Amino acid sequence: MSQFIPSIESGKKMLLLFAKSQTCTAGGIPARTVLTSVYNSRHFVERAPDLYTSPTEAILCPDLKQSMYAQLLCGIVKSAEVVVVGSIFASGFTRAINFLEKYWPRFCRDIRNGELDREVTDPAIRDAVNRILRPDPALAERVEEACRRKSWQGIIRDLWPNAKYIEVVATGTMAQYVPILEFYGDGLPLVCSSYASSECSFGINLNPICKPSEVAYTLIPTMAYFEFLPVDADDNCLVNLIDVKVGEEYEIVVTTHSGLYRYRVGDVLRVTGFKNRTPQFSFVRRKDVVLSIDTDKTDELELQTAVERAFGGLRPYGVTVAEHTSFADVTTIPGHYVLYWELRGGAEEVPASVFDDCCLVVEESLNGVYRQCRTAEGSIGPLEIKLVEEGTFDRLMDFAISQGASMDQYKVPKCLRPGPMVELMERSVKARFFSPKCPTWTSSMIL
């Protein structure tokens, strides 16, 4: 990053990081996520104190609300020193801004009085925050002036005026958060610096200030032994690292130093070029995320593209879709796709016909097999959009975390399975709309 943004190492990073509680296997072996392992490591705990604004005590706190509150407060208190803001995933940082939008009066009160909110009860957090919190009426007034505005466009620049970029993963399913973060950042670059998973680290982005849609990761050959399985090919058709072809898509397979042997990670990558003899890849999708009712197969990328096209119908009304997910409802005859949307903004009420048209736009954007089943065979019913109450997706994340998911690694599932998550969404539905007619289809579309 220092090659692209000079003096970036002279300030602090406000990176919102969240550790998860450790569990044990039946045999007593400690088990935790890779990020939680990092945050608890001596290397991280004994890091240079000037690197991050968040106290270690806040990062390690299992109470997510207290952790979020403390980390944001410290980030604002040290805002003059902050040169980087962000989180692991774009979804996490978006939620942090929404959290700030809800609680900014409390932050202003704490900063003005130099006293931490009483609802933050964790003793370790209180001690850590109180070491840096001092009465600062001028800062409180500046934060209040920025936050009381009707529009939050550029709020990140207003609160952290020296920030050079937003560091988040904004590729794959996280791409849906790019417009809202661009709105909050008002021109700040969105940096996707590296590609990693719990299995191993893969590579880095050698052009980190490029647009998220142009991100390509250069694999580091010494991180693991990498092999590639062409999409839809036989399991025995593995290709070596230097033998992949530009433009082709592959599922990545790893053999790692820690003992995984030819492990299928489940990520589908597209070769975009080479750095010397090392290939560069863009993340396409997760292989196993699909909607299916009959013979149709809708993958994550296709669904995301179709939904984004439908969003365009809401723009004239000043409305955006803050979060969305989907569900293949086979309880009806025939079964049909359900999209759950949580809306944000817009002073003008959106006519029902607009949402009906959104349903049709999604269907028109799906593949030929889906449209054949829907139009010619009648084996799939009209697509349905269900609008849910504000805060529903926060509750969905809270539920996932209560079941063992990690705050740092949580991603909104783009396809729900029957069970508690669908039940949670259904309890929050406030309106529903169906596609008004069948999408177009001809026999040539199936090819």
Automatic annotation (TrEMBL):
Keyword Lyase appears in the UniProt entry: no
Q: Which residues form the GH3 middle domain?
A: 217-286
Q: Which GO terms describe its molecular function?
A: acid-amino acid ligase activity
Q: Which GO terms describe its cellular component?
A: cytoplasm
The GH3 C-terminal domain covers 302-417
Q: What is the residue range of the signal peptide feature?
A: none
Per UniProt, the keywords (alphabetical) are: Ligase
Q: What family classification does the UniProt entry report for this protein?
A: Belongs to the IAA-amido conjugating enzyme family.
Q: What is this protein called?
A: Uncharacterized protein
User: Which species expresses this protein natively?
Assistant: Vanilla planifolia (Vanilla)
